[in-house]
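yo

u said u wanted the structure for the complex thing, so here. seqs first:
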Amino acid sequence: MESLMMDRQLLLSSLLWRTERLFHDKKIITRIGDGQYHEYTYREYGTRVRKLANALGRLGIGHGDRVGTLGWNHYRHMETYFGVPGTGAVLHTVNLRLFPEQQRFTINKVSDKVLIFDPDQLALVEELVDLGIPTVETFVVFGDTVPETRLSNVYSYEELIAAESDEYEFPEFDEHDAAAICFTSATTGDPKGVVYSHRGMVLQAMCLAMHDKLGMSEDQVWLEVAPMFHCNGWNIPHTALLQGSTLVLPGAHPQPLDYVRMVSDLKVTGMNAAVTIGTLMRDAVHTSGQDWDLSSLRTMWLGGQAPSKAIMNWWAEQYGTYVTQGWGMTENTPQICFSAIKSTLRESAGDDELLALRQKQGQPIPLVEIRILGPEGEELPWDGESVGDFWVRSPFTASAYYEDERTAENMVGGWFRTGDVGAIDGDGYVILKDRSKDLIKSGGEWISSIDLENALMAHPKVREATVVNIPDEKWLERPLACVVPTDDSLTEDELRTHLAVDFAKWSIPDRFLFVREVPKTGVGKYDKKVVRSLYTDGGFDAVEAKLG
Amino acid sequence: MESLMMDRQLLLSSLLWRTERLFHDKKIITRIGDGQYHEYTYREYGTRVRKLANALGRLGIGHGDRVGTLGWNHYRHMETYFGVPGTGAVLHTVNLRLFPEQQRFTINKVSDKVLIFDPDQLALVEELVDLGIPTVETFVVFGDTVPETRLSNVYSYEELIAAESDEYEFPEFDEHDAAAICFTSATTGDPKGVVYSHRGMVLQAMCLAMHDKLGMSEDQVWLEVAPMFHCNGWNIPHTALLQGSTLVLPGAHPQPLDYVRMVSDLKVTGMNAAVTIGTLMRDAVHTSGQDWDLSSLRTMWLGGQAPSKAIMNWWAEQYGTYVTQGWGMTENTPQICFSAIKSTLRESAGDDELLALRQKQGQPIPLVEIRILGPEGEELPWDGESVGDFWVRSPFTASAYYEDERTAENMVGGWFRTGDVGAIDGDGYVILKDRSKDLIKSGGEWISSIDLENALMAHPKVREATVVNIPDEKWLERPLACVVPTDDSLTEDELRTHLAVDFAKWSIPDRFLFVREVPKTGVGKYDKKVVRSLYTDGGFDAVEAKLG
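structre next:
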């Protein structure tokens, strides 16, 4: 029996309809300098979103066409978040931190027709043109003017939209249509493209809005630190707009002290960031020598890895800030779990138990189903002990990578294999034991150890090499290379110079261990667990002693 | 461009999946006598829902078949809320308060195959069988045993499910399929059927869960007073289950003092009820002569009509309870608006302004679009002054009545005409002036009965008041006020003087009826039709005789 309900689609533009009418006086605030802010209301935001939509039409962008951005977190980038998908076009946020060759790959893979970028990315974009991005017909610089450039067919964002009408009727189309694309780095090979739907992004924003522990309600002043070029900024900008929260964006090249100043200046009440930011902000507070009042900050959502107890306690004690966390990934639009402590557990737990519970990755958000499978594909119990592979499914989980054969490795039988490993306790709290063993997460970015190993082993003076993740105070993890030289004359500097050809500076290992043999597993693979535990047990000296 | 997201459907069973795993220890508590409660966990709930699903299969209920209920708010009725739609069958909650002939009409209209009813409804069901409900093949009594009856093919609920397996795989099907049916009374003719979708009910529950002013979070103990046989209990049972809140159900024939006792016994933190309940509970507190501690009650959501300022203030002063409201209707699954005060308004408003704002019906909830049209079908501005017909659309708004020609009157051009009349202010707050049929047109001027009712109820000596339009030779229509005094000393002159502060002379009622109780509809609203027809049948004397 069919229901008799209207067939209204879950489109991003339907969120904007409401925000403009109910929260027209609420603001989007962007940092444009030390203590300097650009601010305007959601009413002005909506007006400019419509102008952008009209401008894209004039540039020949139609339903399903891709528009790329290379931008920091600011109001103009936020305008593309609704202005591009609102028309039925697809927003491809190119990751600023990828290597140019990878950025070129992603742009060509999805055939971006327009590329909108920040002024500081101009040299990069010129390089991309040299490398070859033939589908891009039009370039737009986020700003008032076009800098001196050898690009052709280039506009400034402001001149592009200036003359456009602010009348624009958002079209209606299927909620399953693409709204955005984001690429995720792979253990081997090129980045993999995830194509988000309007439906999934609306549902994900609603799920985030439901969480009272996150508390993205209308009265929040929310600082979006997580980059908007990665996983739709965790879908937080959409949630803020949906709820009518004040949205604060940190602008270009923000430093930890900038976040501190923004919280203080704007009475920020909530923020989301990679886990390192919680530590870096603490350090910035200390080294600044100033007495900051950050007590407005009720919630700090740290992602990517579990925040340490020390960080949770420091923020609670200093400012009464509740540090929380979750678990997400590009393929899940992105949130899978969010940490919220059940009232029944809160009542019975002591302080230490609570802190331990808060270090778990939380419970699956609504609409997400999760399971753990053992080595034979058998489903494991939720007992907090049984460790296996996490699989998820939901209306906002990727069913495939964009035109990519690696789909078959991860999307099996209607489920997505996350590549993460761990357990689930009896109340549905996920406990990550290990991420996909070949990846290193440094400062919120993935570094592929396999890629580094392959590059190292390509060096003529290297016989064997493995790269593992080791704890780091500032970046949480850094790569450590363990190398067997063929020739005693090999130096660290030679390896660094060698890697710099293909790798961004931040992804190159800080430390190199020269050893006689890399420990191996029974089947002859490099045993990273052994390398890592030798390191954590005793530091470099011990490793060198044992391995060297 | 199509997205590459999984095609997971929004089904009610997907909410249950999560509740059973994450909130298995949270409870559903049902009042079964004075201070006596039945309670079990969501784990047991899920087990019994599965047994019911298996039992329905054994009875031959398939996808799309209709299962009727005639029940109060209790755990077994709650089991049908997920057990019936979970299988793909459709739950038809028959309204206990309709006349038997209307109940028979609704059962036949949708061809219920099974009818599950409370023991106290047995005589009624026997009467319905006499009247003729030929599609019903099986009768089930909510309880342990079957009372003496002349019905055939009748089971007790407990014997029906006892032997069933608690293993049941909820099937996957289209989220647009029907989950539930509810009938709404019409001004003329038979009740009209609204067929709810899984999609709409899931989305509506998510929208309710997002409202921090409603605050249906995991730590709530929520008392569902609104009847589960009407509009899916305002979708509150689904929202409680989605969030893992403790759900409290008042059982059969609850009286106002029972609600007071439940709040006190169970430390209830939130409740939803028809607007009269706020007054009746206050009166029950007074007349009980006991000193109740109801301070656990943070939120009281009153629906159907705006709660008076007197009631808002009384609950706030006595117990710190925040009385809030919204606007909904059967055709909207049911919520359209919910009252939440924007932080920007809260900061600038004085106490009186705040109270006035809280008497508006609130802002459209997410995914709902709303408009007001003038007499020529022109769209009116949101200025708080322009009064017209409210139209809505959303993914949970009815596109048609079930096999009913009256669809054409209300569903036009993809919008639903609500039949309500009013204005919208500049922040999107809806101000209901009247049902279009209840507006009073006197000497060419519109008089809002709702404004008069609110003013009358603000008088300290008035407990209930309703205002209806009655024919008048000279003015065509005049307002008639029907008032329940708290105190026999109340006079017409006192009320006239009171109204003269805010109302023009011509809009003040000529006649006041003092009665012991205002007649109410099946869902507890003032029944203006009855007041009006009593008057038109016999004039004032007759009304006073019948009501007084």
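Chain A has a mean pLDDT of 91. Residues 535 and 543 of chain A are 6 Å apart (CA to CA).
cya
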